[in-house]
């Protein structure tokens, strides 16, 4: 029997505004089909925080599609050369939330435009900070965490969490997600920042392309926009199909497929003991669940 009883996946958004059509929450249990958790309007980031804090079913493995930390191992710091650079991921979350305390809707504009920290990010309008790249980098994609290099070995195309530009960027999603994790205040452990507890709910970082690859798709074809494709993926994962038919937005499809994938992956010991990590990497950079 699985150590977890429920499985949930959250497709996240770092966009401006109170409510985000890019946020989708799905959950499943047993061997039934995954279902969407919905509100009468699009989710807000604050509502997801309250759902995690107050409505999460006991014993839920929750995957959040965002980066739970910034690169650290490559330079020995998140913000090398800045004396106030945080020492670990939890301190990073608290710093992001504190700097952005006045930003509405759990946004991160104050951090992105910070007079000192903006030098580490690639921003819109061709504004690439002088510290966006590693000093010895041979590529132009910015700094990567150890888990992101490992994702690339699995056929994925990760993006630097310091990159805030482009449709595929994950920087703002990651930073807004850090505000949520800071405000959870440890109410739900976040693996591997926190050790895996013997019982109870746990949050992990996910990359929805990994679920798609496990379901027989490629990283380049990971996005699904119709229920026939989604149900084919669910069938590959041994899951019952969703009842709906016709078009589906890719955010909902990602969440539904990934919730079902988490159900199949939760009891694989190698996914909880990734080979390329260490105690220091776990505490500073975290890891993406599903990357062995």
């Amino acid at each position: 029997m699985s150590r977890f009883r429920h499985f949930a996946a959250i497709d996240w958004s770092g966009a401006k505004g109170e409510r985000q059509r890019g946020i989708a929450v799905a959950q499943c249990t047993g061997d039934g089909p995954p279902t969407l958790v919905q509100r009468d309007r699009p989710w807000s980031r604050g509502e997801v925080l309250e759902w995690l804090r107050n409505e999460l079913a006991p014993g839920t493995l929750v995957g959040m599609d965002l980066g739970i930390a910034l690169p650290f191992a490559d330079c020995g710091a998140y913000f090398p050369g800045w004396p106030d650079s945080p020492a670990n991921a939890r301190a990073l979350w608290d710093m992001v939330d504190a700097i952005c305390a006045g930003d509405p809707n759990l946004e991160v504009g104050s951090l992105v435009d910070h007079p000192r920290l903006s030098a580490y990010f690639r921003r819109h309008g061709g504004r690439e900070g002088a510290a966006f790249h590693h000093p010895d980098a041979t590529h132009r994609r910015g700094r990567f965490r150890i888990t992101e290099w490992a994702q690339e070995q699995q056929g994925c195309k990760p993006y630097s969490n310091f990159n805030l530009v482009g449709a595929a960027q994950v920087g703002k999603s990651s930073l807004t997600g850090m505000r949520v994790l800071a405000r959870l205040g440890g109410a739900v452990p976040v693996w591997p920042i926190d050790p895996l507890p013997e019982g109870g709910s746990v949050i992990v970082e996910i990359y929805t392309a990994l679920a798609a690859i496990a379901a027989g798709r490629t990283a380049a074809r990971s996005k699904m926009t119709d229920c026939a494709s989604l149900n084919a993926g669910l069938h590959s994962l041994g899951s019952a199909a969703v009842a709906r038919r016709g078009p589906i937005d890719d955010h909902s499809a990602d969440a539904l497929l990934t919730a079902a994938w988490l159900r199949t992956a939760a009891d694989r010991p190698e996914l909880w003991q990734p080979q390329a990590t260490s105690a220091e990497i776990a505490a500073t950079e975290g890891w993406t669940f599903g990357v062995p």
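The chain has a mean pLDDT of 95. The CA atoms of residues 8 and 27 lie 4 Å apart.
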